[in-house]
Amino acid sequence: MTVVKVHPEIIEGPWVEGFVLDRHVISSHPIGYLGEHMQYETTRSALGELVYQLKYRNGPPNDIVDTAVAFINDRWNGIIDCVVPPPPSLHRTKQPAVLIAAGIAGAIGVPSLAAAVVKATATPQMKNVPLHERAPLLSAAIQAGTEAVQGRRVLLVDDLWETGSTLRRVAEVLAQVGATEVRALTMTRTK
User: The whole model's pTM is what?
Assistant: First the structure.
């Protein structure tokens, strides 16, 4: 079990309590062009590097899960009934948030309900959508899925937090379908 040092911050939303465990990037400096593209020297937090490796380099989720579980056991021990990841915006062979949510659920002994909330219609990645267009787009796209959360205390887990638009919509849907409490935990935050 490897738990990396984190710097949790509160994230506000339609949940009982929410946290992001650390910043994703500590510093990033341009170092010059390679062809038409600017290259950067980037320093990530320890957890940010693990998330980056999982998301873009096919790295393992183990240390991310161990770090999240340590936080959960300290903060929410015994008050989580299931873990739900948001529906992914991109098709990947391995979905980072789904892998992390499943690992956390297994470690704390509750089900991971990846089909509790689904994307009824495809959307672009939210980082590519102007802020004022996100809420209506997500409201139409993110809907209740086939796995029930009624009467359960849900932990909503994501790998990366940018503005929280997707997580807020997922939390609203979970509340609409009867989750008694929703807590949010994201691994790292951009900007």
Answer: 0.92
